[in-house]
Amino acid sequence: MFENNMKRLGDYIRPVDVRNRDLKVTRLMGINIEKRFMPSVANVVGTDLSNYKIVLKGQFACNLMHVGRDEKIPVALQKDDEPIIVSPAYVVFEVVDTNVLLTEYLMMWFSRSEFDRNAWFYTDGDVRGGMDREALFDMQIPVPAIEKQREIVAEYNTLATRIETNKKLIATLEQTAQTLYRHTFIDNIDPNNLPNGWRMAPLYESAEFINGTSFAPSEYAPAGLPIVKIAEIKNGITAETEYFIGEKEDKYYIRNGEILFSWSGNPETSIDAFFWTHGNAILNQHTFRVVPKDGEYEYIWMLLKNFKPEFVRLASGKQTTGLGHVTVADLKNLKTPYCEYVAREISLQAHGIIKEILLKQQENQTLTQMQTLLLSKMGV
């Protein structure tokens, strides 16, 4: 499509270096592996933020320090009206003429896995695989006619809008399920005066919590079963997913509809319970496969979701280098009011809600695959 129209990126963008001298901008952001801005987890107590760089709407920021090590360029497009600040080490740039190159089209190009793989060839000889600004600017991009760019962006945004609509619906359905759970097990229950047939039960007794497995270098393969880490739990199977061929104990294999509990990672963004909807796979360590002892998947999922704030608090208390964790000991110490037949009843009541959540998750998986296909065709 564009093979004869590859251009030097630096001919279409220019660096921006505006510092936060008057300290008016207070939103400090980093960039995650999904190439989106996120609140920074850096400890800036006592740090002079006047030297941090300001990023305005329509501008880009990227971190080039560990490209070779991470095999990815963390780069993001600022879409909010409110300015943000980023580390002085970040490179900030903008498109010179948006009548020639659309910012959204450029961000789509940055989102391609092929772009990240190609970036490795531009890294320096440092052990961390750093990349300087000039190397980034020397990379090649296709620049079709502006009308064609608009078509591509519109098609991509249509898919993105449908995905976002589904995410909002999923959030509403999850809230509905949580309201049902709290009304049944929290709001009308006195832990010190439980009804007949009720007891205070440790979370650990409600299900079997099976930690995922580790993988030797020889067990990774170009194809096979997807290895599920937190990135796969959040984003599904992508071009960055690793694969396994070999034999492991049956308990590590997962299928659609199973509950996964990520017990290690960033407390605010990773510690959570999820339904898996991306097909047969094998589970990496740092995530539990949760198998309800009474077969009440809906109840167990609602239970874990209800305890998320407490999980986040516990993980934050053990946080080191940005990561925290929830232990088996925590699951044994945390207790909840429990009644077997009520758990069974609430599972039946929530079944339709959970089914709709799973359907919307699977629909988003298909839409995301369509986005990936569109991105892959940009360089053809």
UniProtKB/TrEMBL annotation:
Tagged with keyword Cell membrane: no
Keyword Electron transport found: no
One family name in Pfam for this protein: Methylase_S
Highest taxon, organism lineage: Bacteria
Coiled coil: none
UniProt keyword list: DNA-binding, Restriction system
GO molecular function: DNA binding
Residue ranges of every copy of the Type I restriction modification DNA specificity domain listed in the record: 195-337
Signal peptide, first to last residue: none
GO biological process: DNA restriction-modification system
Record family assignment: Belongs to the type-I restriction system S methylase family.
Record protein name field: Type I restriction modification DNA specificity domain-containing protein
Native organism: Fibrobacter succinogenes (Bacteroides succinogenes)
